[in-house]
Design brief:
Elements: E1 3-11, H1 12-15, E2 45-52, E3 55-62, H2 95-99, E4 106-110, H3 115-126, E5 131-136, H4 139-153, E6 156-161, H5 167-181, E7 186-189, H6 205-233, E8 237-242, H7 257-277, E9 282-289, H8 303-311, H9 325-332, E10 343-346
Parallel strand pairs: 4-5, 4-7, 5-6, 7-8, 8-9, 9-10
Antiparallel strand pairs: 1-3, 2-3, 2-6
Bound molecules: nicotinamide-adenine-dinucleotide.
Nicotinamide-adenine-dinucleotide binds near residues 113 and 192.
């Protein structure tokens, strides 16, 4: 069953004076979205906020209930402003540079409310993407990120509050993306959580299962929904899973067996899907970041360990939130047309030692 209700359409002008978001490091005002609850029992809404040409639209997808998302604090990274490429430039690009652009493409970015996902979404808008669907469980972050991205670049950006563990909701959300944009060409699968400093001998069973459910089952459910849309289009596409160097090496000094196992699984899922879906023109690759300076790692308890991480990194720094951007663009673009099933480690050299 699928139903959509348009709740309100308003110009940006009329929204400005209403409510202000108070998260750190962000000064722009934001209308806090309110959504009608589902009229049917046990069927949660997937709120959708769309920003296009200065207009904000709220809608709701009603989908059968299968779970709820984790509660997280609305920490926001300091963002750079995305700058769209002047359309007049495309005709002047050399064949090599032209292959790096994504003119007219449509992308889904999970975990795009903040951090690495949002930064990669910004990068896509700088190289020609015409539509982006951000999917995240954090309402305020996702809504604000969609608005910022659309205001900065003029790109049609939609935000769906949806949990990657909910396969049914994900299927209908991706269908809505295709209905709205006409197609789907790129998936950046960045939603994920981390648990660290938990010894294997005392790891709580439910905690262990929950992390696997988000990091590996969630990655699969999103890839399945987007992969099906790409198969049905007959045009293929590019799927980029965000794994981790933790899928290839064991981190030191913190114990995090579950996270490491989950990311090893993401790498192997990437290879398996790449082999299965090559016949449909779908390429599937993974990015394995090293230690990155995002909210995920901005936890006081990790301060002492961060010094060890930096010491053990040949480049002597954590990765910046935008350090994956150009690799993501490359993997999404025809520049990497012959690359599939590859796991690209980008870690300042950490895994060399
Ligand atoms: N930060 C690092 O050092 C690092 C290193 C290697 C890999 N990674 C991976 O990169 C990805 C992004 O990490 P980040 O540092 O930007 O983290 P982050 O916490 O800043 O962003 C992750 C986003 O995913 C969303 N999310 C979490 N659970 C979700 C769910 N069930 N459904 C939908 N959305 C959900 C969060 O709300 C958040 O907006 C993760 O998969 C992470 O494991 C991060």
């Amino acid at each position: 069953m699928f139903a959509r209700s348009v709740l309100r359409t308003a110009t940006r002008q009329s929204l400005r004076p209403t409510t202000f978001f108070t998260a750190p490091a962000v000064t722009a005002p934001i209308q806090r979205a309110t959504f009608k609850s589902s009229s049917r029992d046990n069927e949660p809404d997937v709120p959708v906020v769309s920003y296009h040409e200065g207009q904000r639209t709220e809608e709701t997808l009603n989908v059968p209930k299968t779970g709820t998302g984790p509660v997280q604090s609305p920490v926001k990274d300091v963002q750079k402003v995305a700058i769209p490429l002047n359309p007049n430039v495309y005709s002047q690009l050399t064949p090599t540079l032209a292959k790096f652009t994504l003119q007219g493409k449509v992308a889904v970015v999970t975990g795009g409310g903040r951090g690495l996902g949002f930064n990669m979404a910004q990068a896509l808008t700088e190289v020609g993407v015409r539509g982006i669907a951000i999917m995240d469980v954090q309402q305020e972050l996702g809504d604000r990120s969609a608005r910022e991205l659309s205001e900065q670049t003029g790109v049609d950006v939609r935000f769906y509050r949806v949990d990657v563990r909910d396969g049914q909701a994900m299927g209908q959300t991706v269908q809505d993306v295709v209905d709205h944009f006409g197609e789907l060409n790129i998936l950046i699968n960045a939603a994920g959580i981390a648990d660290s400093n938990i010894k294997a001998e005392t790891y709580d069973h439910e905690k262990f299962r929950r992390l696997l459910d988000i990091n590996i089952t969630g990655s699969f459910l999103v890839a399945q929904a987007c992969g099906n849309a790409m198969i049905q289009s007959g045009k293929g596409g590019s799927i980029i899973n965000i794994a981790s160097m933790s899928g290839s090496v064991v981190n030191y000094p913190q114990e995090q067996s579950c996270y490491n196992a989950s990311k090893a699984a993401v790498i192997q899922l990437t290879k398996s899907l790449a082999a299965e879906w090559a016949r449909y023109g779908i390429r599937v690759n993974s990015i394995s970041p090293g230690y990155m300076d995002t909210a995920l790692n901005r936890v006081p308890a990790l301060d002492a360990q961060k010094r060890i991480w930096v010491d053990n990194t040949p480049q002597k720094r954590l990765g910046a939130p935008d350090d994956l951007n150009n690799l993501a663009v490359y993997l999404a673009s025809d520049g990497s047309a012959f690359m599939t099933g590859n796991n690209c480690i980008i870690d300042g050299g950490y895994t060399l030692w």
